[in-house]
Amino acid sequence: MILVEKDFWSERGTDDTSSEELGTPKPSVLFADMASSGCWKCLSRPSTSQLIQANHATLRLPVTAAAATAGFSTSAAVYKNPLGLKPKGPGAFSQNQARGGKTLKIKKKPPPVRTGKPPAEGERKALRKRIVLSNTNALEVEGLEDLGLQNVGSEALVAKVVGLSGSTVDSLRASEAFKITQGWNLFRRPAILIRNEGVICVKALEEAEAEKKTERLVIDGGRVSGKSLMLLHAMASAFVKGWIVLNIADTQELVNACTEYSPMPDTTPTLFSQNIYTAAWLGRIGKANEAILDKLQLSQTHSLPIPLQENISLLRLCELGSREIEHSWPIFQAFWKEITAADRPPVLMSVDGLQWIMKDSLYRNADFDLIHAHDLAIVNHFVQYLSGEKSLPNGGAVIAATSRSHAPISRSTDLAILQQLNRQAEEEVTERDPFEKKYDERADKALQKVQVMWLNGLSKIEARALMEYWAQSGVLRQRVDEKTVAEKWALAGNGVVGELERGALRMRI
């Protein structure tokens, strides 16, 4: 670039010399004149930039990409698109067009269309709770003795496996006594191991029947220690003896706010009935005790909201209550009066999952406060007999089993069980934690006078009898000797029955 410039500062110098030729004033006056003349000159003359533009001869060259870059660079300047926008317009082209290639475009598959029929109401729950009680591929165990009226309380059956007859199995199935986690589908037909604690439980039932008293018992133990199986043994013995059995298989269904409920009038404190659950419960009671209830007829007069035929059987009454959902609770009260009348069989009430009904439920009242489980009509009916507030006139038992694998933590239940175990062992009673705020007073009151049966692991004799039964059924393909029994017994935590089954039958290395 070539610039041609006149000497601007030389012009200014000539102007200053011409002013001196006019005369030299005094120093102060000269200073003022020079300042004023300089300011006026700055304002009257064009600026320096204007003079440079006017006096410069500029040669403008085209700006190219090479000139815009540094001298040491050999590549063109490429600026990043800050907004990430794609070029638009007729002159824009894509990256694929620039390189002249093709890309593989994989289209996403649309979501699958459900063409099948959706499951009906309750079908998935029925499939989830379906229990298989027989396996035709399993071997038939020869010489297997059935549990009957002659040997139901015999001590000779301790450490032996006995089978269950067809009628007993039907009653237990209707009562929902079998659990899906108990492995019934591995064997030819259901059978149970007679433990020493089982014989003690049956002896307590026989004593309650003979003396017409109410036996109150809580079955507790570690996880998978056989609490539900012990409850099943008690129910099977009651069915064999001809008792009337009322079983609540899962107390969680009573308190998890999944069934309809309504307040009952003229009750203090206010109780809440669950008509749909009560109707289903009456249906199960009728099927489980069909052989007994079909022979018993109405002996009292009841004021029910629906007309009731005289001299009908109690089985027919249960069927009526299962159909009349709106009046199921009054029908259950009439049924209870009938089975507790004079000259009726003893009654066994059993519950699995005690911790669920020893705390607040998920239901709410009109003030949106949580309803305690003892304010539900069915739970209140059971707790009255468990706590000893009421007794069975014809004798019977109230048995509750705890759950350690799927149940909430109930501080009051755990403390009451521990204190009762201390009393039974004649030890010092454990005191309440003064800083614990989660105790339930109503649960404490209900569990004060109950007996507790604590289940430990199986003995080695009982474990060997069980493993021999597994081997005869073709499930355990291993020689059962003293060494094998000791190994499996030790690995199962000193004979915990659930761990023994898992280690011997279900675990494959």
TrEMBL record:
InterPro entries, alphabetized: Ribosomal_mS29
Bias (Basic residues): 102-111
The UniProt record lists the keyword Iron: no
A GO MF term: structural constituent of ribosome
Positions of the UniProt region annotated as Disordered: 88-122
Keyword annotations of the record: Mitochondrion, Ribonucleoprotein, Ribosomal protein, Transit peptide
Pfam families per record: DAP3
Subcellular location: Mitochondrion
Main localization of the protein described in the UniProt heading: mitochondrion
Coiled-coil segments: none
GO cellular component: mitochondrial small ribosomal subunit
PANTHER family: MITOCHONDRIAL 28S RIBOSOMAL PROTEIN S29, SMALL RIBOSOMAL SUBUNIT PROTEIN MS29
Family assignment from sequence similarity: Belongs to the mitochondrion-specific ribosomal protein mS29 family.
Record's protein name: Small ribosomal subunit protein mS29
Organism: Monilinia fructicola (Brown rot fungus)
